[in-house]
Amino acid sequence: MKAVLMFTSMVWLFLIVGGTHEYAWSILAPPSDAVTVTGRVLLHGQQPTPHMIAVKVDTSTCGTSVANTRVIRNPRTAGLANAVVSLEGVRNERGDVVSDMSHKVAISNVHCTFSPQVKAAQVGQVVEIRNEDPILHNTHITLDQRTVLNVAQLPGGRPVSKGLKKAGRHVVRCDKHKFMGASLMVFDHPYYAVTDESGSYQLPPVPPGRYTIRVWHESLGVLTQDIEVSSPQRSSVDFTY
To answer: If DSSP codes are grouped into helix, strand and coil, which group holds residue 239?
Structure first.
């Protein structure tokens, strides 16, 4: 297993395939030899103590301080939540490998946080931003430091929707409450998943082949591992920081 340390602002987990592939089938009807790839991301040791950030605006709703919790470890399973698993190197030029485009990706302003903190979607889907707080929020989404969406949201106002046109990490911020932040990872293929509270993930059925799994974490760096996926075997890959 190969480890490469990187330090950026959110938690990501990637599957990278060597070379470029095109898969001419729908995720809703995968080939009979497709393999389910599952696994867990674990964190050895205790939950890190979160950094507290002082709040100076809208304290009646937000409180006087918030915890900057980016590393979330399940005390029962030792699993690391909010990691994104994806299969990279896939080319979907014909557009015949798609997820359910009618399903909107929802991100909410709740108690002065973005919920969920990490989300994944596919190009062509729509992200819907909701304000469930009794105060004004400003949702500012950027991709490669360019603004994708910048809108003020009144309390009780209607959700704001935006089509996702490009792949990449979309940074979600509230300009009014600068301690608020989230990430929306957008892919041009459907091979991705987000680890749950137990640190578990499950990718859509993957065609047999050789792959490299890459795990990225904001504070813990990068781990990689090569695997061979073969039908009808079920593949399971775990990582431990």
So the answer is: strand
Closest to 128 measured CA to CA, from 64, 93, 166, 172: 172
CATH 2.60.40, domain 1-52+73-89+199-241, yes or no: yes
Q: pLDDT tens digit string along 21-57?
A: 333 334 445 567 778 889 999 999 888 888 899 999 9
Strands 146-153 and 137-143: antiparallel
Top CATH class of 98-188 equals mainly beta
Rounded CA separation 225/238 (Å): 10
Strands 221-229 vs 12-21: parallel, antiparallel or unpaired: unpaired
Determine whether 15 is exposed, middle or buried from the number of CB atoms within 10 Å of its CB (0-12, 13-18, 19+): buried
Domains 1-52+73-89+199-241 and 98-188 share a fold: yes
CA 120 to each of CA 86, 126, 195, 237: distance values in angstroms, whole numbers, following the listed order: 9, 11, 11, 20
- Domain residue ranges of the chain, discontinuous segments joined by +: 1-52+73-89+199-241, 98-188
HSE-up (13 A, CA, CB side) for residue 117: 22
CB contact at 8 A, 198 and 79: yes
Beta-bridged to residue 146, according to DSSP, are: 143
- Report the C-alpha gap between 151 and 40 in whole angstroms: 36
The pLDDT tens digits of the residues spanning 115-170 come to 999 999 999 999 999 999 999 999 999 999 999 999 999 998 999 999 999 999 99
Please return the burial class of 183, using the count of CB atoms within 10 Å of its CB with bins 0-12, 13-18 and 19+.
buried
Per the CB < 8 A criterion, the answer to whether 212 and 15 are in contact is: yes
